[in-house]
Design a protein that fits this description.
By secondary structure, the chain is α/β, with parallel strands linked by helices. It contains ten helices and twelve strands. The chain has a single domain, classed as Spore Coat Polysaccharide Biosynthesis Protein SpsA, Chain A (Alpha-Beta Complex), CATH 3.90.550.
Amino acid sequence: MDPNIVILAAGISSRMKRTDPGQESVDPNLAREAQTKTKSMIGLGEGRRPFLDYLLFNVRASGYRDVVLVIGEKDREIREYYGEAGGSDAFEGLRISYVVQNIPDGRSKPLGTADALSRTLAARSDWKGRRFTVCNSDNLYSVNALRLLLELPDECGVIDYDRDGLEFEPSRFAQFSVLSKDREGYLTRIIEKPSPEQTAAARNGCGRIGVSMNIFRFLYDRIMPILGEVPLHPLRDEKELPGAVTMLVERFPKSVKAIPLSEHVPDLTYQQDIVRVQEYLRINFQKIR
Protein backbone atom coordinates (compact mmCIF):
# COMPACT_ATOMS: atom_id res chain seq x y z
CA MET A 1 0.00 0.00 0.00
CA ASP A 2 3.07 2.30 -0.08
CA PRO A 3 3.02 3.43 3.58
CA ASN A 4 4.81 6.71 2.81
CA ILE A 5 3.87 10.14 4.13
CA VAL A 6 5.24 13.68 3.89
CA ILE A 7 4.45 16.12 6.71
CA LEU A 8 4.96 19.79 5.89
CA ALA A 9 6.49 21.66 8.85
CA ALA A 10 8.65 24.36 7.27
CA GLY A 11 6.27 27.32 7.54
CA ILE A 12 7.32 30.43 9.46
CA SER A 13 4.14 30.42 11.63
CA SER A 14 3.49 34.14 11.16
CA ARG A 15 -0.22 33.91 12.02
CA MET A 16 0.48 31.94 15.19
CA LYS A 17 2.84 34.65 16.42
CA ARG A 18 0.18 37.33 16.03
CA THR A 19 -1.92 38.28 19.08
CA ASP A 20 -5.44 39.33 18.11
CA PRO A 21 -7.59 41.62 20.28
CA GLY A 22 -10.42 39.79 22.01
CA GLN A 23 -8.92 36.32 21.56
CA GLU A 24 -9.57 33.66 24.17
CA SER A 25 -7.21 33.62 27.12
CA VAL A 26 -4.19 31.44 26.38
CA ASP A 27 -1.92 30.00 29.05
CA PRO A 28 1.01 32.48 29.28
CA ASN A 29 3.56 29.69 28.94
CA LEU A 30 1.88 28.43 25.77
CA ALA A 31 1.59 31.98 24.45
CA ARG A 32 5.36 32.32 24.85
CA GLU A 33 5.91 29.04 23.02
CA ALA A 34 3.65 30.27 20.23
CA GLN A 35 5.97 33.26 19.80
CA THR A 36 9.20 31.29 19.73
CA LYS A 37 8.51 27.78 18.42
CA THR A 38 7.37 26.13 15.23
CA LYS A 39 3.62 25.53 15.62
CA SER A 40 3.99 21.77 15.53
CA MET A 41 6.40 21.86 18.50
CA ILE A 42 4.15 23.77 20.92
CA GLY A 43 3.73 21.56 24.00
CA LEU A 44 0.08 20.56 24.44
CA GLY A 45 -2.10 18.00 26.19
CA GLU A 46 -1.15 15.80 29.10
CA GLY A 47 2.60 15.98 29.61
CA ARG A 48 2.90 19.00 27.27
CA ARG A 49 3.93 16.92 24.28
CA PRO A 50 4.64 18.65 20.94
CA PHE A 51 1.52 18.92 18.80
CA LEU A 52 3.33 16.94 16.11
CA ASP A 53 3.51 13.95 18.47
CA TYR A 54 -0.25 13.48 18.29
CA LEU A 55 -0.23 13.52 14.49
CA LEU A 56 2.61 11.00 14.42
CA PHE A 57 0.73 8.71 16.80
CA ASN A 58 -2.20 8.74 14.34
CA VAL A 59 0.15 8.28 11.39
CA ARG A 60 1.63 5.16 12.97
CA ALA A 61 -1.76 3.78 14.06
CA SER A 62 -3.13 4.14 10.52
CA GLY A 63 -0.35 2.02 9.00
CA TYR A 64 2.30 4.42 7.68
CA ARG A 65 5.95 3.59 8.22
CA ASP A 66 8.14 5.91 6.10
CA VAL A 67 7.78 9.54 7.29
CA VAL A 68 9.49 12.58 5.81
CA LEU A 69 9.34 15.79 7.86
CA VAL A 70 9.91 18.93 5.79
CA ILE A 71 11.54 21.49 8.09
CA GLY A 72 12.86 25.04 7.81
CA GLU A 73 16.52 25.82 7.37
CA LYS A 74 16.83 27.32 10.87
CA ASP A 75 14.76 24.64 12.59
CA ARG A 76 16.88 22.46 14.84
CA GLU A 77 14.18 21.70 17.40
CA ILE A 78 12.23 19.16 15.35
CA ARG A 79 15.32 17.27 14.29
CA GLU A 80 16.80 17.27 17.78
CA TYR A 81 13.54 16.09 19.36
CA TYR A 82 12.84 13.24 16.94
CA GLY A 83 16.45 12.27 16.49
CA GLU A 84 19.14 12.84 13.90
CA ALA A 85 18.89 9.19 12.90
CA GLY A 86 15.18 9.58 12.29
CA GLY A 87 13.24 8.02 15.12
CA SER A 88 12.80 7.68 18.86
CA ASP A 89 11.50 5.14 21.33
CA ALA A 90 8.11 6.86 21.37
CA PHE A 91 7.66 6.20 17.66
CA GLU A 92 9.01 2.71 17.27
CA GLY A 93 7.91 1.40 13.89
CA LEU A 94 8.29 4.73 12.09
CA ARG A 95 11.29 5.62 9.96
CA ILE A 96 11.58 9.40 10.21
CA SER A 97 13.79 11.39 7.86
CA TYR A 98 14.10 15.09 7.06
CA VAL A 99 14.13 17.42 4.08
CA VAL A 100 15.15 21.05 4.59
CA GLN A 101 13.27 23.74 2.69
CA ASN A 102 15.56 26.74 2.34
CA ILE A 103 14.51 30.37 2.00
CA PRO A 104 15.89 31.65 -1.32
CA ASP A 105 18.03 34.77 -1.39
CA GLY A 106 15.92 37.91 -1.50
CA ARG A 107 12.91 36.30 0.18
CA SER A 108 11.69 36.40 3.78
CA LYS A 109 9.82 33.08 3.64
CA PRO A 110 10.02 29.74 1.83
CA LEU A 111 8.60 29.26 -1.66
CA GLY A 112 5.49 27.41 -0.48
CA THR A 113 4.06 23.93 -0.12
CA ALA A 114 4.46 22.91 -3.78
CA ASP A 115 8.15 23.77 -3.55
CA ALA A 116 8.42 21.84 -0.26
CA LEU A 117 6.95 18.73 -1.86
CA SER A 118 9.11 19.11 -4.97
CA ARG A 119 12.25 19.18 -2.81
CA THR A 120 11.04 16.14 -0.91
CA LEU A 121 10.41 14.04 -3.99
CA ALA A 122 13.76 15.06 -5.48
CA ALA A 123 15.36 13.68 -2.32
CA ARG A 124 13.24 10.51 -2.36
CA SER A 125 13.74 9.16 -5.85
CA ASP A 126 13.22 5.71 -4.33
CA TRP A 127 9.51 6.60 -4.23
CA LYS A 128 9.28 6.71 -8.03
CA GLY A 129 6.38 4.58 -9.21
CA ARG A 130 4.94 4.58 -5.71
CA ARG A 131 2.28 6.56 -3.89
CA PHE A 132 2.46 8.73 -0.79
CA THR A 133 0.28 10.94 1.41
CA VAL A 134 1.10 14.57 2.16
CA CYS A 135 -0.40 16.73 4.88
CA ASN A 136 0.17 19.75 7.12
CA SER A 137 1.87 19.55 10.51
CA ASP A 138 -0.56 22.01 12.14
CA ASN A 139 -3.66 19.86 11.60
CA LEU A 140 -4.45 16.73 13.60
CA TYR A 141 -5.84 14.32 11.01
CA SER A 142 -7.64 11.25 12.34
CA VAL A 143 -6.53 7.65 11.98
CA ASN A 144 -9.59 7.13 9.80
CA ALA A 145 -8.71 9.92 7.37
CA LEU A 146 -5.09 8.82 7.10
CA ARG A 147 -6.07 5.19 6.56
CA LEU A 148 -8.67 6.07 3.90
CA LEU A 149 -5.90 7.62 1.81
CA LEU A 150 -3.43 4.82 2.52
CA GLU A 151 -5.93 2.20 1.32
CA LEU A 152 -7.25 4.25 -1.62
CA PRO A 153 -7.27 2.12 -4.80
CA ASP A 154 -7.06 5.19 -7.09
CA GLU A 155 -3.74 6.77 -8.06
CA CYS A 156 -4.43 10.03 -6.24
CA GLY A 157 -6.96 11.30 -3.74
CA VAL A 158 -8.07 14.05 -1.39
CA ILE A 159 -10.14 13.93 1.79
CA ASP A 160 -13.37 15.78 0.99
CA TYR A 161 -14.44 17.14 4.39
CA ASP A 162 -18.06 18.02 5.03
CA ARG A 163 -17.92 21.69 5.99
CA ASP A 164 -20.75 21.21 8.48
CA GLY A 165 -18.73 18.57 10.31
CA LEU A 166 -15.91 20.99 11.11
CA GLU A 167 -16.26 22.67 14.49
CA PHE A 168 -15.10 26.14 13.54
CA GLU A 169 -16.83 29.49 13.75
CA PRO A 170 -18.60 30.40 10.47
CA SER A 171 -16.13 33.22 9.74
CA ARG A 172 -13.35 30.63 9.53
CA PHE A 173 -15.05 28.70 6.74
CA ALA A 174 -14.27 31.44 4.24
CA GLN A 175 -10.59 30.49 4.54
CA PHE A 176 -11.15 26.91 3.42
CA SER A 177 -10.84 25.84 -0.20
CA VAL A 178 -13.99 24.34 -1.69
CA LEU A 179 -13.76 21.11 -3.69
CA SER A 180 -15.60 20.83 -6.97
CA LYS A 181 -16.30 17.24 -8.09
CA ASP A 182 -17.91 15.47 -11.01
CA ARG A 183 -20.81 13.05 -10.65
CA GLU A 184 -18.47 10.13 -10.05
CA GLY A 185 -16.75 11.87 -7.15
CA TYR A 186 -13.54 12.86 -8.90
CA LEU A 187 -12.02 16.25 -8.21
CA THR A 188 -12.36 18.81 -10.99
CA ARG A 189 -11.07 21.92 -9.21
CA ILE A 190 -9.91 23.33 -5.89
CA ILE A 191 -11.48 26.76 -5.40
CA GLU A 192 -9.48 28.92 -3.01
CA LYS A 193 -11.17 31.84 -1.28
CA PRO A 194 -14.47 30.95 -3.00
CA SER A 195 -17.15 33.55 -3.57
CA PRO A 196 -20.63 32.88 -2.16
CA GLU A 197 -21.73 31.95 -5.69
CA GLN A 198 -18.87 29.44 -6.09
CA THR A 199 -19.62 27.94 -2.70
CA ALA A 200 -23.29 27.56 -3.56
CA ALA A 201 -22.41 25.94 -6.89
CA ALA A 202 -20.23 23.39 -5.09
CA ARG A 203 -23.14 22.07 -3.00
CA ASN A 204 -24.21 18.56 -3.90
CA GLY A 205 -27.79 17.36 -4.17
CA CYS A 206 -27.98 16.94 -0.38
CA GLY A 207 -26.71 20.44 0.28
CA ARG A 208 -23.26 19.24 1.35
CA ILE A 209 -20.25 21.48 0.77
CA GLY A 210 -16.91 19.68 0.58
CA VAL A 211 -13.76 21.52 1.65
CA SER A 212 -10.05 20.75 1.70
CA MET A 213 -7.95 20.53 4.84
CA ASN A 214 -4.81 19.97 2.75
CA ILE A 215 -4.35 16.23 3.00
CA PHE A 216 -3.73 14.42 -0.31
CA ARG A 217 -2.55 11.12 -1.78
CA PHE A 218 -0.39 11.22 -4.93
CA LEU A 219 1.38 8.96 -7.35
CA TYR A 220 4.97 10.19 -7.51
CA ASP A 221 5.16 10.02 -11.30
CA ARG A 222 1.94 12.02 -11.74
CA ILE A 223 2.62 14.93 -9.42
CA MET A 224 6.40 15.36 -9.63
CA PRO A 225 6.56 16.90 -13.16
CA ILE A 226 3.75 19.32 -12.31
CA LEU A 227 5.34 20.64 -9.12
CA GLY A 228 8.12 22.29 -11.05
CA GLU A 229 5.62 24.19 -13.21
CA VAL A 230 3.48 25.69 -10.44
CA PRO A 231 3.53 29.50 -10.70
CA LEU A 232 3.82 31.87 -7.76
CA HIS A 233 0.44 32.78 -6.32
CA PRO A 234 -0.22 36.42 -7.32
CA LEU A 235 -1.16 37.49 -3.78
CA ARG A 236 0.70 35.15 -1.43
CA ASP A 237 3.86 34.94 -3.54
CA GLU A 238 4.22 31.20 -2.96
CA LYS A 239 4.03 28.04 -5.04
CA GLU A 240 1.05 26.32 -3.46
CA LEU A 241 0.05 22.68 -3.47
CA PRO A 242 -3.64 23.33 -4.26
CA GLY A 243 -2.51 25.00 -7.48
CA ALA A 244 -0.52 21.89 -8.39
CA VAL A 245 -3.56 19.69 -7.71
CA THR A 246 -5.75 21.83 -9.96
CA MET A 247 -3.14 21.54 -12.73
CA LEU A 248 -3.08 17.77 -12.17
CA VAL A 249 -6.83 17.30 -12.62
CA GLU A 250 -6.87 19.57 -15.66
CA ARG A 251 -4.25 17.42 -17.39
CA PHE A 252 -5.49 14.08 -16.10
CA PRO A 253 -9.25 14.15 -15.54
CA LYS A 254 -10.58 11.61 -13.04
CA SER A 255 -7.11 11.19 -11.55
CA VAL A 256 -7.91 12.51 -8.04
CA LYS A 257 -10.67 10.76 -6.10
CA ALA A 258 -12.51 12.89 -3.52
CA ILE A 259 -13.16 10.81 -0.39
CA PRO A 260 -16.14 12.17 1.59
CA LEU A 261 -15.66 12.37 5.34
CA SER A 262 -17.52 14.23 8.07
CA GLU A 263 -15.49 14.92 11.21
CA HIS A 264 -13.63 17.73 12.92
CA VAL A 265 -9.95 18.42 12.21
CA PRO A 266 -8.16 20.25 15.04
CA ASP A 267 -6.23 23.16 13.57
CA LEU A 268 -3.35 25.10 15.07
CA THR A 269 -3.13 28.23 12.94
CA TYR A 270 -3.80 31.05 15.43
CA GLN A 271 -3.03 31.48 19.12
CA GLN A 272 -6.71 31.26 20.01
CA ASP A 273 -6.72 27.76 18.49
CA ILE A 274 -4.56 26.56 21.38
CA VAL A 275 -7.50 26.66 23.81
CA ARG A 276 -9.72 24.50 21.57
CA VAL A 277 -6.93 22.07 20.71
CA GLN A 278 -6.15 21.61 24.40
CA GLU A 279 -9.77 20.63 25.05
CA TYR A 280 -9.78 18.24 22.09
CA LEU A 281 -6.63 16.52 23.34
CA ARG A 282 -8.01 16.28 26.87
CA ILE A 283 -11.02 14.35 25.56
CA ASN A 284 -9.42 12.27 22.82
CA PHE A 285 -5.83 11.67 23.99
CA GLN A 286 -6.17 10.95 27.68
CA LYS A 287 -3.45 8.31 27.51
CA ILE A 288 -0.90 8.00 24.76
CA ARG A 289 2.39 6.21 24.51
